[in-house]
Design goal:
436 residues, alpha/beta, eight-stranded mixed β-sheet
Length: 436
């Protein structure tokens, strides 16, 4: 083990010279993309040359996860370093009032009031922009953002999302233009940061390759003859379009001379498996308790401090905040349970990850357990999924060997009662909601 740790330690440089300027931080978050849907992850058809190059210059965690497979809760975890049952943002939306459709609910005063109450719950948790501001950073939000005004509620110095429901505010509003309509607002912020010589944090979370799947014709034409499904072709083309925007962002950092002292981290918010027969997603992906919804590559680049390489160790989006804070010389809050991904001993010694999957529309916005569908954990190559009886009637625990069965098709729970009991005990020790 010591020999392994020493070898792994060679991939990382953890010390920052006392005279060095604080590193900038850019967090790139893809939206609704399968964990294997990249060139660097071995996809047969999807072309992602910019992310491929980026991954080759970075530390790549192939076994990365997000704790929950729905975007709002997942994004809230990235920005707070807390699990959804801690920050209380478990679902995308409040309960839909009886007798109303989702569209009608968006005009209902009580429903809109609950939306504001959800944002108020979020504001009780510290966020990366607020914590980094204490270290002298200023920050910019572009892309998906659910929690009201990105500056007032999220703590960003500047941002695209106004969050006003009367003007279309829900999950990003003006921020949703980024990527699809160019990156000019982000570039202007980077130029300002260069001029002011201040360390910065950028949240780049475009709604890509998320629906609508309307890629440029030049990209769609590349994939039409590679699949019988136009829906799959459109999704694949969206992945490449998103990759192009990442390339533009990285090129701008280089043009501004900001690449060398910038930590760039990449992951996506949740998984996606394209339904070949419709524009929607297939089962066992987004919103699900399976790896198709939960797994993501996590990539960290920091020139001169992180040596490029590939790690098969487990990593989670719960680790982002502790990693970023450690890199800038700050401490995580007492409630953050993630690890610093740039600490080789912590990474190598971790054996398990945990997560939780909730309803799309909350049952009770203030009570995470009321919205829970499944808890899950990965321990080595074992994966345990435990349904929450109140919301998954008749559900049974599932157990999979991910090394032999990465698609989670063969449930081994009945054949391995001792392993099931062992992992259930660990999962309960992490978080066991009180009985309803």
């Amino acid at each position: 083990m010591l020999r392994f740790l020493s070898a792994f330690a060679l991939t990382l440089a953890l010390t920052l010279p006392a005279t060095a300027a604080p590193p900038n931080v850019v967090l790139i978050v893809g939206d609704d993309q399968g964990w294997g849907d990249y060139g660097f992850m071995g996809h047969q058809h999807i072309k992602t040359p910019h992310l491929d190059k980026f991954a080759s210059e970075s530390l790549l965690f192939k076994r990365g996860y997000v704790p929950t497979s729905l975007c709002r809760a997942s994004l809230a975890t990235m920005i707070t370093g807390l699990y959804a049952h801690q920050h209380k943002i478990t679902s995308n939306d409040p309960p839909i009032p009886k007798g109303l459709t989702a569209g009608q609910a968006n005009k209902d005063a009580g429903y809109l009031k609950q939306r504001q109450e959800m944002i108020a719950l979020f504001e009780k948790s510290p966020t990366l922009p607020k914590l980094l501001e204490k270290e002298g950073y200023f920050s910019y939000q572009a892309g998906k953002w659910w929690e009201g005004n990105s500056c007032r509620c999220g703590g960003f110095s500047e941002g695209m999302t106004h969050g006003d429901p009367s003007k279309g505010g829900r999950h990003g509003d003006e921020g949703l233009k980024i990527g699809r309509e160019g990156l000019r607002p982000v570039f202007e912020f980077l130029d300002k940061a260069k001029k002011d010589s201040k360390p910065f944090f950028v949240w780049y979370a475009p709604m890509m390759p998320h629906q609508p799947h309307n890629p440029p014709e030049r990209l769609l034409n590349k994939y039409k003859d590679k699949t019988k499904s136009i829906h799959v072709a459109k999704y694949w083309a969206m992945c490449e379009w998103f990759d192009e925007t990442v390339g533009e962002l990285l090129a701008q950092l280089a043009k501004n001379g900001q690449s060398e002292n910038t930590i760039v981290i990449y992951l996506h918010d949740n998984g996606w498996i394209q339904d070949p027969d419709s524009a929607s997603f297939a089962p066992r992906s987004k919103k699900s308790q399976y790896d198709g919804g939960l797994r993501t590559p996590i990539i960290v680049k920091w020139p001169g401090h992180v040596k490029p390489g590939t790690s098969e160790n487990l990593a989670s989006s719960i680790d982002l905040a502790p990693t970023i804070l450690a890199a800038v010389g700050a401490k995580p809050t007492k409630d953050m349970s993630g690890i610093n991904l740039l600490d080789p001993q912590l990474v190598a010694s971790r054996s398990a990850l945990f997560g939780e999957v909730f309803e799309h529309n909350a049952v009770d916005i203030a009570n995470p357990a009321a919205n829970l569908r499944h808890r899950w954990m990965v321990d080595g190559n074992w994966k345990l999924i435990v349904p929450h009886d109140a919301n998954v009637k008749g559900g049974k625990p599932e157990l999979y060997d991910l090394a032999k069965d990465p698609d989670e098709l063969t449930d081994l729970a009945a054949k391995n009662p001792e392993k099931l009991a062992e992992l259930t005990k660990k999962l309960d020790a992490w978080w066991k909601p009180a009985k309803e």
